[in-house]
Amino acid sequence: MIRKIKGGVGDLRIHFAGQATSGQMLLQAEEMEWLMKTLDKEKRAGFTLVELMIVVVIVGILAAVAIPLYRGYTKRAIATEAVAGLGTVRTALRVIYAIDRDYTNGNTITKGEPAETILGIGDHSLDGAYFDQDDYSITSVTSGTFTLQAKGDINSGAGNNTGKANGITITMDHEGTTSSP
Questions:
Q1: Which DSSP symbol is given to 134?
Q2: Strands of the chain, DSSP E
Q3: What pLDDT, on the 0 to 100 scale, is given for residue 38?
Q4: Which domains are present in the chain?
Q5: Alpha-carbon distance 113 to 136, whole Å?
Q6: Predicted model pTM
Q7: For the CA atoms of 67, 68, 70, 73, what is the dihedral angle to 10 degrees?
């Protein structure tokens, strides 16, 4: 007959007795099942390689989805600075239009000119963390309409943010409609 005796953690002693009856043999089978389950639990301390590989695959899938999303959100956040700068230029042009009823200010503002040529836009007043004053330009202007552009490059920005706006182009028209990055 098998008897289980617990002394300490993991301490198991097995005693065999002489002849066993059928009832005792059934008891022995149940005790053997208990013994096998106990020993099996002791062997399973930790994770199997398959379980670890499943976790690695899940983390890889999450990273494959999250990293591009993060980059997209970062790009959009950087673009908000360009939208703000274009809004400043748009406001200056609207002031000129309110006075002269002409965005060209008597043909002194023309296509391709930097934004700093507009009255009210001071030297370096459009410099930000990601875009510099030189990144803003007038892409088209008529007496009644205009289109502005902010285009980041590898030299745009200041400090640790230099070049982070590279490849980001935002346009804004006279109505304030902007393009998305």
A1: G
A2: 5-6, 12-13, 136-141, 146-151, 169-173
A3: 72
A4: 54-173 (3.30.700)
A5: 9
A6: 0.66
A7: 180
